[in-house]
């Protein structure tokens, strides 16, 4: 009787587990809380089936053990640094990376469910619905001023203080915004969409060898909409990750794709060419209409931008890695330990205080680097082993008719070089579930060693490491760049070349000082704004700055058409960052003056005019004193030579 009851419980629990997994696939594009509850139910109910299903987990234990091992080393490191925690259990349970180990528990369970033939059709259907929900909510969020998740949860009313969407520019008369679906951030949504995009593209390519035109049109439309939303999403790390997966698949399956392409006749080939032409024309149109996309692409090669602060994050991260290579610094201690590395940089150049303050330092923005720092290199190496097995699994995948390839999960390897997707529960939990589905679906026996699966992660890892070794060799004096806003991106770049760096790099200052940069008269007559300096001085609590603000402008003596006058307005703007503290910058003018420019050096000095607090806790009641500048009195028929601009080290220009 007890045995019959046990079998019945096991059977019911197995059904609850598989249906929880299926509804989890529907939930993760819609609700983080609901998806976590369903994942927990899937895991918990499966425990009652271990007597029957436990031995069947054996094929999936190796990759699973590598993931659990990576989390375990973080726990060991935390115990080693036990005395350095002010509240160990509070910090460990709420902030430690090891606390996310439960997310990986769904991996072998999803793999086992996926391996059963009776479940595969249902899983395939729910994957399609999951993707459809993700895409539809993403498209809806493009045209929503409010973040849809909170907007819906508040009864379709915006709550006071809720963050608005990031504007992306007008499209056909409609204002558009960065798509985030029902997620909290565009990075999370970009990560979720990345799981599906490579598979959708593969299915579209497969459709061209079939003769069903409606299917080709449907999948081509879905691919176009997916890529449009993905491009508009602005997640550069996800872009690189998806490109990496597509590159891996293309190289691995080149013969299969070549055979597939050879079967496409002239009629379908012309049709495919027409679709590609339409897609490229559309992308060009959207690019021209979207200033945010233009700015994002132009910043891919820059060290320092408002959105991409990896230089400063890694500059503070690498010393932690060198000091704690074996066991790391412990879970949940990245921010605390990296903040300690800021002081020497700020003491060397106080202007970096604000820059480092607004740099997000909760984690390393690099999955491998994060785990290497908090759990030691052993933790990172185990993750590398898992991704080797993952790419070996992707290499062995077969694209069967009617299937839904989830090969996009490999995007996290490359994307993880620039963002901590494994620390984002909203992405990591679906990642482990989909990885399990991929693992269970493939029945082909894998080779013991796959050199292709080894070479791809190795080469991409070495390329990324080499790039950042080169980048981090750039002195921080040259990596830092004051924010400049002008009417055109070309004018902004030219102005950046004319702002002199800190005095500690005299050779670079001299080079820029003597450089002749010409712009059009139209640009020269337009106004631009230049980031200035804080009203209060380091450290925290901060004291009010007493010395005046001063700038220098150098006109090359041999300039044929320099501006002879300049209007400069000093304005106040709040000193916190809009994306970090969720407030908007309020600005107002303080003083305007017209200056006559003569060949050689010209100076502008301004003394604080408002009665500010003498002592404050930064960033409260601390402001920026920045500058709006417009050049004038030059020949409008000829190119204009821009003067060099010197703010010294801290708006303290001296002849």
From TrEMBL:
The chain crosses the membrane at residues 21-48, 60-82, 125-143, 186-204, 216-232, 238-257, 269-287, 371-391, 403-421, 427-442, 449-470. It comes from the Bacteria. It holds the Pfam family Wzy_C. One of its GO terms (cellular component) is membrane. Keywords: Ligase, Membrane, Transmembrane, Transmembrane helix. It is a multi-pass membrane protein. GO terms for molecular function: ligase activity. Residues 222-384 form the O-antigen ligase-related domain. The keyword Transmembrane helix applies. The keyword Transmembrane helix applies. It is found in: Membrane. This is O-antigen ligase family protein. It comes from Leptospira langatensis. The lineage of its organism: Bacteria, Pseudomonadati, Spirochaetota, Spirochaetia, Leptospirales.
């Amino acid at each position: 009787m007890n045995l019959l009851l046990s079998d019945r419980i096991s059977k019911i629990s197995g059904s609850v587990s598989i249906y929880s997994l299926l509804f989890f696939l529907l939930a993760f594009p819609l609700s983080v809380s609901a998806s976590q509850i369903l994942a927990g139910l899937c895991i918990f109910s499966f425990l009652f089936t271990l007597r029957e299903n436990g031995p069947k987990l054996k094929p999936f234990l190796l990759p699973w053990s590598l993931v659990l091992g990576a989390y375990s080393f973080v726990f060991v490191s935390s115990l080693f640094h036990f005395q350095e925690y002010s509240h160990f259990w509070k910090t460990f349970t709420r902030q430690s990376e090891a606390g996310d180990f439960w997310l990986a528990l769904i991996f072998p369970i999803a793999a086992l469910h996926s391996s059963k033939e009776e479940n595969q059709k249902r899983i395939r259907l729910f994957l399609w619905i999951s993707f459809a929900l993700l895409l539809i909510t993403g498209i809806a969020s493009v045209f929503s001023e409010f973040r849809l998740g909170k907007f819906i949860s508040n009864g379709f009313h915006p709550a006071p203080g809720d963050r608005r969407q990031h504007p992306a520019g007008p499209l056909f008369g409609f204002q558009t915004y960065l798509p985030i679906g029902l997620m909290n951030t565009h990075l999370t949504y970009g990560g979720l969409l990345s799981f599906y995009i490579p598979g959708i593209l593969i299915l579209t390519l497969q459709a061209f060898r079939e003769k069903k035109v409606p299917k080709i049109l449907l999948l081509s439309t879905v691919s176009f909409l997916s890529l449009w939303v993905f491009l508009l999403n602005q997640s550069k790390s996800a872009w690189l990750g998806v490109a990496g997966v597509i590159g891996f698949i293309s190289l691995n399956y080149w013969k299969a794709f070549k055979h597939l392409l050879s079967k496409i006749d002239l009629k379908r080939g012309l049709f495919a060419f027409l679709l590609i032409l339409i897609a490229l024309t559309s992308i060009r149109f959207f690019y021209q209409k979207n200033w945010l996309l233009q700015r994002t692409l132009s910043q891919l090669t820059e060290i320092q931008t408002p959105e991409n602060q990896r230089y400063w994050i890694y500059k503070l991260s690498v010393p932690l890695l060198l000091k704690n290579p074996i066991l790391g610094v412990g879970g949940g201690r990245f921010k605390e330990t990296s903040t300690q590395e800021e002081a020497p940089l700020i003491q060397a150049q106080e202007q970096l205080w604000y820059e480092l303050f607004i740099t997000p330092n909760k984690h390393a923005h690099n999955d491998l680097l994060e785990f290497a720092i908090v759990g030691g290199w052993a933790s990172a190496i185990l993750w590398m082993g898992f991704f080797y097995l993952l790419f070996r699994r992707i290499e062995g995948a077969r694209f069967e008719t009617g299937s839904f390839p989830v090969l996009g999960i490999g995007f996290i390897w490359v994307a993880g070089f620039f963002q901590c997707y494994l620390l984002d529960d909203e992405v990591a939990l679906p990642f482990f579930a989909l990885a399990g589905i991929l693992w269970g679906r493939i029945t082909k026996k894998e080779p013991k060693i796959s050199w292709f699966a080894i070479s791809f992660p190795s080469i991409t890892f070495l390329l990324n490491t080499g790039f950042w070794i080169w980048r981090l060799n750039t002195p921080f004096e040259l990596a830092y760049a004051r924010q400049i806003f002008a009417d055109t991106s070309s004018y902004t770049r030219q102005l950046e070349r004319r702002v002199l760096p800190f005095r500690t790099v005299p050779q670079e200052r001299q080079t820029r000082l003597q450089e002749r940069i010409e712009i059009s008269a139209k640009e020269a007559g337009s106004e631009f704004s230049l980031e200035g300096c804080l009203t209060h001085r380091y450290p925290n609590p901060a004291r009010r700055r007493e010395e005046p603000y001063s700038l220098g402008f150098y006109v090359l003596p041999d300039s044929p058409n320099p501006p002879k006058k300049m209007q400069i307005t000093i304005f106040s703007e709040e000193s916190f960052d809009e994306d970090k503290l969720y407030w908007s910058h309020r600005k107002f003018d303080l003083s305007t003056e017209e200056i006559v420019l003569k060949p050689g050096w010209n100076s502008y000095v301004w003394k604080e005019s408002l009665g500010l607090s003498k002592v404050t806790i930064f960033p409260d009641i601390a402001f920026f004193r920045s500058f709006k500048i417009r050049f004038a009195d030059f020949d409008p028929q000829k190119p204009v030579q821009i003067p060099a601009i010197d703010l010294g080290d801290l708006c303290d220009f001296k002849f």
